[in-house]
Amino acid sequence: MQISSFDDVLRFTEQFTNLEKQTTHYTTRTYRLDRMEALLKHLGNPEKSFKKIHLAGSKGKGSTASYLAASLTALGFKTGLYMSPHLSDYRERFTLSGTFFDDYILVAAGQELVDALSGFVFTDEWGETNPTTFELYTAYAFLLFKISGCDWAVIETGLGGRLDATNTIIPEASVLCPIELEHTKILGNTIAEIAGEKSKIIKEGVPVFIGWEEGEALQVFLEEAKQKHSPAFLIDEYLENLQTTTTTEGEKVTYTWKDGTKQDLCLQMRGHVQAQNTALALLVLKQLGLFDERVLPALEKNQIPGRFQQLAAKPYLYLDGAHTLRSLKALLASFSDLHPSDSNTVIFGALEDKDHTHMIELLLDHFTKIIISQPGTFKKSDIKALAALTRSLANKRDVSYDIILIEDNAEALKQAFAMTPKDSAILTCGSFYLAGGIKRAFDAARNTYESQLA
Q: Residue 378 pairs with which residues in a beta bridge?
């Protein structure tokens, strides 16, 4: 196959099994790493050509990864960044610290991958099998970083850690972000089980950095680090105090470290959680000897799509991919700092494997106008059941709610603007797929919303 564009790369990879679309029927064969290891060896092990930082966790790993990549870039290193999912463009998954690769590099890496696969055969006790889509994307990212001459790459796990395709690397540092109950059909039904899956990115002797974690998850992480003889750096042991306030200018944060140093930043990515993500990134940089003052403005300017992203004003429109209870709590705390009005509107949609009841209860605490809309079709969801649950929970409260089911994202956005006063705000949350759909709807109708542009 001749690759002449990035779209050709996507068409090629979509021929293979796409595990991201599945929520059941995961098998041992599906998630063994020997096929991925064989593929990388067949490609000449491109992942060995650059230094790496590897991240896992339930929340914050994408933002923390982007802060690390932006910092390394500010220090003069060519830095690759591999993340998932994307919001509106697949190229968001493979970037030079948030900047798209030139088309000729995207094509060259794609052609190398396609040519190599024509001679790749993997056989085990299950017979001959092909790589999955995510395995191919991971290999593609490594090829991009090698071909473009990256010094460093910051790599986020796709799902879990132990059997994730990215867990074929030996990094300079492993980073573990906060754990929540998620993907329980795959990773386990308890915090300890999920933490056990994530902890397996810890490699022998490689330092591990642990964010705001406690209880069972922390114990699992520390035990794994001990078994792997890996030095463990806990954020609470190094950060004396963190003060953060969400403002119209950005997230204003003061970090006070136990070594007596202090930083005052105004982050473009708003939200209390971004203050925590940045602190974890700073700890990694400091302990790896990669910190100097040049990283601070890079941290302030860093932005990635779908993280409390403002698209419009009059009324305000925000997108956020918060899809767990913990992340939603943090988002709503920051949102309420900016918009305490009781006339705000939320557009909400969530996939089937989320904690719908507790997330909806939170939304009902903050909004009386709720639009339920489709979070894409990439993964399973049931928005009719979600709307019914929302109405059922609302009926138990002594408050009048306006709950509307609008499957089409463009119509949902149109209705949200119609029902929200110009001095109030619209928040989209519950799924990155929903955030992406609303962004596409907004971009397609920018002329309509011209007077409301941020």
A: none
